[in-house]
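Proteins fold reproducibly. Take a sample protein:
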Amino acid sequence: MSELPNTWVQVPIGEVAEVNPRKSVDLNGDDLASFVPMAAVDEVSGTIAAPIDRPYSEVSKGFTHFRNEDVIFAKITPSMENGKSAVARNLNNGTGMGSTEFHVFRSYGAIEPEYLWRYVRQQSFRDDAQTVMSGAVGQQRVPADWLKEHMIPLAPKAEQRRIVEKVDSLTTRTARARKELNRIPSLITRHKQRLLALAFSGELIGKRPSKGKAFDSGCWDIPNDWHWMRFVDVAEIASNLVKPETIPELPHIAPDNIEAGTARLLPYRTIAEDKLISVKNRFYPGQVLYSKIRPYLKKAVIVDFDGACSADMYPISARLELNPRYLLYWLISDDFARFSARHEGRTVLPKINQKALNTTPFPLPPLEDQTDVVRRIESAFGWLDRVTGDHAAAMRLLPKLDSSILAKAFRGELALQDPNDEPVSSLLKRVAAERAEKATSSRTRKTDSKKDQAMVAKPMSTRDQLLDDCREWPATGLTYEDVARRVARPYDEMRDALFELLSEAKPPIVQAFDPDREIVVLQRAAA
């Protein structure tokens, strides 16, 4: 990591936050608490999106306890890698119970929960956590001790809030960009189907449909020199069953090897590699392979090699008057899917049989028009596919942009440093003193209060503490940080007390310049 700003320090997470704090709940059994299963945490927004209100008695045992402003962090694979973490907010009665697969961070006061959450949400942090996971495969978890010991760059408290605000501002923009980009695939799909609808009415090539050409319900008007035909009149389902052992080295194409609605062939293996035993349909170059299972998926592709396909597919040969690519685009169109839906037959696993397919309507143009239609479809689809590629590149860039924002934030390069911020060293001492005082107070409450009240002296004011302490200061003086280490008081109180002492008519403490160290120091005034 690059050098941090002077006002920052690196500290173990366990020094600024309690990891998996002990249960501390003051609820009756009938009181409601928020129950948070792993699925309720949205890994995209980093929020508890769907908590469930449950009586405390139902969830008080066997679950992880947390409260408002705690940070919860999935410790198990793959939830941890997926980024399931959140700052707990708006919990019923301020109390949450969740999956035992959450680690919980509770700030001691020196770190803002939102700052800590953004740090552990980083991809780089999750990558580091993944390297230390232990346990059986599929049940690996991040150890709590690793979290406690992991070093975090800690900014002054006020700067932490500025960093969170700046990160939110920037990531809101990337979230908006992500939302807009997420719309593009469906827009492209709809645009392609609109192009196909125009293609099979003749309008894509500038021809006007003629009234009265439709001969079947569901058909539409087409140009005068186009004709509605039955599928069987323009194409042949060339079923040719073979035993797989006779052609082990040939490619095997199944419905899963074809991308839905795009006519794109996906990676495939050989018949031997797929260890096939049942008969398959032989196919040859130039044929169209069409998946008869779930016709609404619109899976079809033209092959330029020979092989065998699943019995759930039809190898289809175009007759002389039909361009195979025109046939291909017809088979992946919404229009054809609507015709095939009439004959699906099954509800659990719909399919169209050979007889039904042969009876479906088919809009047949002259060969010259078919060629023109195919050319225009492929030109438009080519441009849309390039847009798809640009979209994919942009989607890959967004996580990197988010990671870059967080990396800059935790290097101190995102928000402005303010010299008036309480230094982290003072902050940590103050919080430690407050914790110690709280612990002492807690122990005191457990003893006889009257006896303790008689024994406990009234605490000194910050001003009096400074006056008492300055009697032991060296003659060369101390820096402000040195004084803060000796007199552990809240930053604001320390500042005000010093200003008051320095402003008196005869100040007991004075400021001086130390030429050897070239710094301003505080000294006890001469008697």
About this structure: The first helix runs from residue 13 to 16. The radius of gyration is 36 Å. The domain at 9-154 is CATH 3.90.220.20 (Adenine-n6-DNA-methyltransferase TaqI; Chain A, domain 2).
